[in-house]
Amino acid sequence: MRLFTLLLFLTLGSAGAAEPILPLPEIRPAATPASRLGRRLFHDPRLSGSGRLSCTHCHRLDRGGDDDRPRPPLPTGPHPHNTPTVFNARYNHYLHWYGDLDTLEEQARVALQRDMQVDWPAVLARLSADPDYAASFRRLYGGVSETAVIAALVAFERTLVTPDAPFDRFLRGDTEALTPRQRRGYVLFKRLGCSACHQGVNVGGNLRQKLGVFGRYPSDDPGRFAVTGRPQDLGVFRVPSLRNVALTAPYFHDGRVKTLEKAVSLMAELQLGIRLTEAEIQDLVAFLHSLTGRWKPEGIRP
Ligand code: HEC
Ligand code: HEC
Q: Whose CA is closest to atom 30 on ligand 1?
């Protein structure tokens, strides 16, 4: 029996199949002419109705790919939701807090409409009047169009990947990549059941789950119910990715949770019905810090 267990361990262990989390590819996708065009568009406030907002206004690439505000302001009042990071968004199966969008293309259309109040005819005219833009669009897409703007933005977003997190090095066999505390945190993350929801290559992003299985999170947000109208979707949210989570405070869909410590202890209480000790919280937080990767070689700042 022991031998069998050992063999099982060796088989699963060597294939890496036993781990609920997979590493990101080691090498970031290379820039392409389309992604370079998209990069410029991502930074360009001329895409917005006001002429003052660019995607980077809320998704700061020099920070965690988000902003530091609980909820960004829109002309109509505060945004209903906290800004998630754009880093590694290509690996999420579901997008947005409600998990109601499946592709980056659909998302970019919503972002332009809702978050940037785009005036398409004006934007297409502006881009066509700019000789650099006009030439790039002509070469890559045969001309300037809504579909082309979105395709280029998405081509850029697909390069926003942050490899080389200590945890990824650990998963590839470098046991020294994590501190003892981070290793304890990872064991706890699996043992308690955090990894039942936060798993896969993005440590989340591929499930939709009820927030508040064991208690109520104080929010009036109906969750996915708002888009589906089905009673079973009340309070259901997309399980967010925890990659780079140490850089993306504040937390939760309403941005009301200020620290990672608080987010972790709330999760244990609400999702697992467990009250963590201070030491367990610190171990889990240390583990979450090991999920910070690099975008530029110099890394990303909080
Ligand atoms: C005013 C702030 C703001 C601006 C400007 C903005 N976003 Fe966002 N972005 C958000 C918020 C808030 C969400 C979450 C929306 C939700 O879940 O309801 C989001 C979600 C996203 C997501 C989904 C991430 C995920 O994992 O769910 C992507 C991708 C994204 N934005 C890309 C863009 C792009 C591309 C632009 C520019 C065209 C842009 N955003 C402009 C605030 C902004
Ligand atoms: C039953 C599924 C489930 C389990 C188990 C679970 N989570 Fe979550 N987690 C979620 C959902 C859903 C959210 C989004 C909450 C929201 O919408 O505000 C979330 C959010 C988070 C956040 C905030 C991320 C952000 O960007 O705002 C952290 C950190 C987190 N979880 C860590 C943990 C840890 C640590 C554990 C184990 C103690 C855990 N989770 C267990 C489903 C789960």
A: 86
